[in-house]
Design brief:
Elements: H1 2-49, H2 56-71, E1 77-82, E2 87-90, H3 105-111, E3 116-122, E4 125-136, E5 139-149, H4 151-201, H5 215-265, H6 271-302, E6 309-313, H7 314-331, E7 335-339, E8 347-351, H8 352-369, E9 375-383, E10 386-393, H9 415-420, H10 427-437, E11 441-446, E12 452-459
Parallel strand pairs: 7-9
Antiparallel strand pairs: 1-2, 1-5, 3-4, 4-5, 6-8, 9-10, 10-12, 11-12
Helix pairs in contact: 1-2, 1-4, 4-5, 5-6, 6-10, 7-8, 8-10
This protein binds adenosine-5'-diphosphate (ADP).
């Protein structure tokens, strides 16, 4: 990242410097050239006014008078020639060319009637030379040649180049510092996230990312930590579930083993004893089968089991459940009723078998956990696009602290009583999963009689209305 930043900055600075220096030197050179032309033209006009072709000496003095004044205090060399390139005046004291031939390309072009300029390398550095014609009555009678050393311009450009270099280096330094800062702000949290992700892939969900850096990074960190929390909770649940399953399966297996061992060790057991032992064994096997079947049901629901939707009259379904359990209720002298409502029965779309099992689990629980002689009522009602199934009993009820837990897997309020009823601790867990698959809710509240009310709410999706 830093390298990219630096490369981009360097290229930008370089382009900026080349462009600016180019423009600046062009301006400086053209300004110099214009000034030199202006001076040459003034000399040309003065020369034209005082022109005397017959007397070189007089001519020299007249030109010296005007030209010296104009070039005083400058380092400009001024030469005036006639059309045969013979120098009439030269302001250079040491290498004075007066009377000699002074042939230069620019003067030649001036004699030809045009203004000309050029830059050439002299012993003392770059030099700018301009030449303009001297005209009299529309005829070229000579030429003015001015040459000026460009050291002042090259010096100025050199100074600007040096300043630009220092400025660029300073800027580069500041950019390096800023990019190191930015990359630290961005890459540091990313490195931490990577560390957490690696820990997750190793199955370690306890690592958390530090919430710091810019807002986006902090949000990313929060999301990652939230995911870790969820994974951790899921892993905990999975571990507990495996240990619960092992525990639940171990109990009947131990029972069967004990019965087998006792039978093997018994000396000449009679037929009745053998039958009694085998009966007990069969009961334990039934219990194992019940647990395994319920676990299979749960695992099907967990995997988002295929929903077999059909048009169902929920009132008829609940009535059917109540009827199928009437015999068991009768054995406990429990009054089991289905309270039909006046509301017109509605046909809604749901998975018949799954909801039948849900209602069955709740009603069978109500019968099992209500003491002999109690009452269990089932009713169905419809409220704002919800189908509500209520099962109320006047049993012992469920304490507030346990109301949510009873829907957990293998959770039993009273272990021994629940086992006596043949309970696996999975009935309500299965019920909850099936209800959730229908996008519904289930809860348990206290009944006025002191017992419990289980309430299932299913969204009404009437056939053809979706
Ligand atoms: P189980 O197979 O043990 O009945 P459930 O998941 O159906 O398992 O129920 C979990 C626990 O909730 C039961 O063991 C019982 O303690 C409690 N429970 C369920 N229904 C009732 C009820 N109607 N009255 C009192 N306790 C109940």
């Amino acid at each position: 990242m830093i390298t990219t930043y630096l490369a981009v900055t360097l290229i930008t600075l370089l382009l900026m410097a080349v462009y600016n220096i180019g423009i600046l030197s062009e301006n400086l050179y053209s300004e110099k050239t214009m000034k030199l032309y202006a001076k040459a033209n003034i000399i040309s006009q003065s020369a034209s006014a005082v022109w005397d072709a017959n007397d070189d000496r007089v001519m020299y003095l007249r030109l010296e008078d005007t030209t010296d004044r104009l070039l005083a205090g400058t380092s400009i060399r001024g030469v005036v020639t006639n059309t045969s390139y013979t120098v009439l005046y030269d302001n250079h004291r040491a290498a004075n060319m007066t009377g000699k031939v002074f042939m230069r390309d620019v003067i030649k072009r001036a004699i030809d009637g045009e203004q000309a300029d050029t830059v050439f390398e002299a012993d003392n550095g770059s030099t700018l030379a301009v030449a303009v014609p001297i005209e009299f009555n529309g005829e070229v009678i000579g030429g003015v040649y001015l040459a000026e050393n460009l050291s002042s311009v090259t010096d100025t450009i050199g100074t600007i180049k040096a300043s630009l270099l220092v400025f660029s280096l300073l800027l580069l330094f500041v950019i390096v510092l800023i990019s190191i800062g930015i990359s630290y702000i961005i890459t540091h949290p990313i490195a931490e996230f990577t560390e957490v992700a690696r820990a997750i892939s190793r199955g370690d969900f306890t690592k958390r990312a530090k919430i710091s850096g810019v807002r986006e990074m902090a949000e990313m960190g929060q999301a990652l930590n939230f995911m870790c929390d969820e994974l951790n909770a899921l892993e905990e649940k999975r571990k507990n579930f495996v240990s619960d399953v092992s525990h639940e399966l171990k109990t009947p297996m131990a029972g069967i083993k004990l019965l087998c061992d006792s039978l093997v060790q018994a000396e000449n057991p009679d037929m009745d004893t053998i039958r009694e032992f085998l009966n007990d064994m069969s009961e334990e096997i039934d219990r194992l089968t019940r647990i395994i079947n319920r676990l299979l049901t749960l695992s099907r629901l967990d995997s988002g089991a295929d929903m077999n939707l059909s048009k169902v009259d929920v009132s008829a379904l609940c009535e059917g459940v109540v009827e199928s359990l009437r015999k068991i209720a009768h054995e406990k002298d429990i009054e089991l009723v289905y309270e039909s409502s006046d509301i017109e029965a509605r046909i809604i779309e749901l998975d018949y078998d799954k909801i039948y099992e849900c209602v069955y689990n709740i009603v069978v629980n109500a019968i099992n956990y209500t003491p002999d002689g109690g009452h269990v009522k089932t009713r169905v009602k419809y409220e704002s696009e919800l189908c509500i199934i209520e099962v109320e009993d006047d049993g012992p009820g469920i304490p507030d602290g346990e109301k949510l837990k009873v829907f957990d897997r293998f959770y039993r309020l009273d272990d021994s009583r629940a086992r006596d009823t043949g309970g696996t601790g999975l009935g309500l867990a299965i019920t909850k999963e099936a209800v959730l698959l229908h996008n519904g809710t289930i809860e348990v509240t206290d009944a006025q009689t002191g017992g419990s009310v289980f309430t299932m709410k299913l969204p009404v999706t009437e056939p053809g209305k979706e």
